[in-house]
Amino acid sequence: MTETSAPIPSPEDARRVACVGAGVIGGGWVAHFLARGYDVRAWDPAPDAAARLRRLVDAAWPALEQLGLAPGASANRLTVTATLDEAVAEAQFVQESAPEKLDLKRNLLAELDAATPAGVVIASSTSGYPMTDMQTEAVTPGRLVVGHPFNPPYLIPLVEVVGGERTDPEAVRWAARFYEAAGKSVITLDREVPGFIANRLQEALWREALHMVASGEATVHDIDRSITEGPGLRWAIMGPMLTFALAGGEGGMAHMLDHFGPSLKSPWTRLAAPELDKALYDAVVAGCDDAADGRTIADLVAERDRGVIAVLRATGRLPGAGAT
Ligand SMILES: NC(=O)c1ccc[n+]([C@@H]2O[C@H](COP(=O)([O-])OP(=O)(O)OC[C@H]3O[C@@H](n4cnc5c(N)ncnc54)[C@H](O)[C@@H]3O)[C@@H](O)[C@H]2O)c1
Predict the structure, then answer these.
(1) C-alpha 36 to ligand 1 mean position (Å)
(2) Which atom of ligand 1 is nearest to the CA of 27?
């Protein structure tokens, strides 16, 4: 990175992490990094933050033990600091998880930039702000990236990584490698997309759900059950694209698009439908072929079915679960 003035470890060798903002997500990050064997310093301005954080880590720890702790991992390797400066002074990576308010993020990221050793990557957990909008006040914005997690960060593997207009691409690469080394599953975006990938999808679903509640078309309970007893079971195994490719039977996604593509324009959704032109059609079919990675439709059906059964068994919803 251009602004580097002190040796920065390789992403795989970084051992000291600072978590700034230690609520639901920051605390979840703390638990994750501790379980992966990092030394963690945390800072949060709330008067009860330290006690809250300890409670969160204690509550998460049994699950983390079940998943398997990294060698040397210990909840005792957490230090809650009295100041932001102490938290980041020796950090080799910083994860910011403060409230989702643009001005707060702008000022905090500038403060972190000033206090963190040169060249150390600083990632924001933001759920949707583009880094371009958040890095405006920082003196060295090149090391600022988005590292968007999912709740709880110690169990859900995905992190979406993306830079802003003034982010050094090397910082994006460093962050992606760091998260991988820390046991996360990383998607790196090559451009800024509001809401990134997963929240854009979640928001579309959520918007429809809220429409249905507001108009009395469905209850909150029915909406949740419609997912947990329905598509959600499949989505834990395959994403919406391959799931729909299987809905096309032996014809896969091509048949699915021929069959149901026209209904994209039906009033099933309140969102404007994309034009299903040839380029989009081809991209979706080819993307499904890529994702299948040589597996036939029959292979994918068997894989999906095994996976759904495993999820049902794991969540105690498999008839006769516990009998074996
Ligand atoms: N909750 C989710 O499911 C979720 C998922 C992904 C990303 N995020 C993102 O993570 C970030 C944190 O969200 P959360 O759900 O943990 O919120 P939260 O309200 O649980 O926690 C925010 C924490 O930030 C602290 N804080 C307040 N002002 C601060 C400051 N100036 N500097 C540092 N810390 C400060 C608060 O005391 C609080 O402990 C947000 O950017 C949010 O969009 C949330």
Answers:
(1) 22
(2) 16
Residues lining ligand 1, judged by CB closer than 6 Å? 20-26, 44-46, 49, 97-100, 104, 108, 125-127, 148-151
With a CB cutoff of 8 Å and minimum separation 6, the contacts of 40 are 17, 18, 19, 30, 33, 34, 77, 78, 79
Instruction: Show the DSSP H helices in the chain as ranges.
Output: 24-35, 49-67, 84-88, 102-115, 131-134, 169-181, 198-214, 220-228, 231-235, 240-247, 252-260, 278-292, 297-314
Q: Which atom of ligand 1 is nearest to the CA of 107?
A: 31
3-state class of 315 per DSSP? coil
**Side chain identity at residue 56, one-letter code:** L
Sheet holding 158-163, edge to edge: 78-80, 39-43, 16-20, 93-96, 122-124, 144-148, 158-163, 185-188
Ligand 1: centre distance to CA 23 (Å): 5
**Which residue's CA is the closest to the ligand 1 atom numbered 3?**
151
Q: Which CATH superfamily is domain 16-188 in?
A: NAD(P)-binding Rossmann-like Domain (3.40.50.720)
Q: Are 241 and 280 in contact (CB under 8 A)?
A: no
Domain boundaries, the chain: 16-188, 230-314
What separation in Å is there between the alpha carbon of 31 and the centre of ligand 1?
15
DSSP state of 71: T
pLDDT digits (tens, 9 = 90+) for 236-285: 889 999 999 999 999 999 999 999 988 888 877 777 777 888 988 998 88
Q: What does R_g of the chain's alpha carbons equal in angstroms?
A: 22
Q: Which regions in the chain score pLDDT beneath 50?
A: 1-4, 320-324
Closest Cα to atom 33 of ligand 1: 21
Q: Are 124 and 96 in contact (CB under 8 A)?
A: yes
